[in-house]
Amino acid sequence: MEYFPAPLEKLVEQFARLPGIGGKSAQRLAFHVLDLPMEEAQEFADAIVAAKKSVTLCPVCQNLTEGGLCPICASPKRDGSVICVVADSRDVIAMERAREFNGHYHVLHGVLSPMNHVGPDDLHIKSLLDRVAAGGIEEVIMATNPDTEGEATALYIARLLKPFGVKVTRLAYGIPVGGHLEFADDATLMRALAGRQEL
């Protein structure tokens, strides 16, 4: 038995398809949209359609852009000899927030995950290899997440890059700032010890 009119049910279903949105949150969002004035609801719908139509992938780094090169690839101030490989466009934002990296990026749009049927051909690995093969790249930093899939992806790409003679590095792991040793897991402690630096 449906509790809401069919269009409202459909709206709830669409919101529920979003990642991290459960049934109750989907209902809350749907009711919020219904409460919006018609102009605001139209603006919301137009923003979704406009983003879907105009946001594309940068032909160089595969990051999201509005046609043509992304601002990072287009910037002459960035160091083109270093590429930071990330799994997702959100990772680019995280790296940029730190304001420490001044090179270019390469977005894979996922990680290797045999359980989820994601293989090398499903990721933007070939375009990374093409960039390195074109020359001018001195270092590739693997910045995938330190989980099983991220590690497997980093190792796989590092193996593919070996013949090109570029330096391949991995982001350091360790205890987070403000963290406590007693709460760190064994793998984190092991990597923190292995990556220790002289003061």
Shape: globular
Instruction: State Rg.
Output: 21 Å
| End-to-end distance | 67 Å
| CATH architectural arrangement of the largest domain | 3-Layer(aba) Sandwich
Mean pLDDT: 90
Structural class: alpha/beta
CATH fold-level name of the largest domain:
Dna Topoisomerase Vi A Subunit, Chain: A, domain 2
Element-level helix/strand string: HHHEEHEHEHEHEH
Reading off the top of the CATH hierarchy, the class of the largest domain is best stated as Alpha Beta
Secondary structure: number of strands: 6
Widest sheet, order of strands: 4-3-5-6
Helix content: 40-55%
Beta strand %:
5-15%
Q: Quick gist of this model?
A:
With 199 residues, this protein is an alpha/beta fold. It is 44% helix and 13% strand. The N and C termini lie far apart (67 Å).
Question: Mind explaining what this structure looks like?
Answer:
The chain is an alpha/beta fold and 199 residues long. It has two domains: 6-54, RecR Domain 1 (Helicase, Ruva Protein, domain 3, Orthogonal Bundle); 64-170, Dna Topoisomerase Vi A Subunit, Chain: A, domain 2, CATH 3.40.1360. 44% of the residues lie in helices and 13% in strands. It is built from eight helices and six strands. The protein has helices at residues 6-16, 23-35, 38-54, 71-74, 89-98, 125-133, 148-161, 186-194; strands spanning 56-57, 64-65, 79-86, 103-107, 139-142, 167-170. The strands form two sheets. Strands 4-3-5-6 form a four-stranded parallel β-sheet. Strands 1-2 form a two-stranded antiparallel ribbon. Helix 1 (6-16) crosses helix 2. The protein is globular.
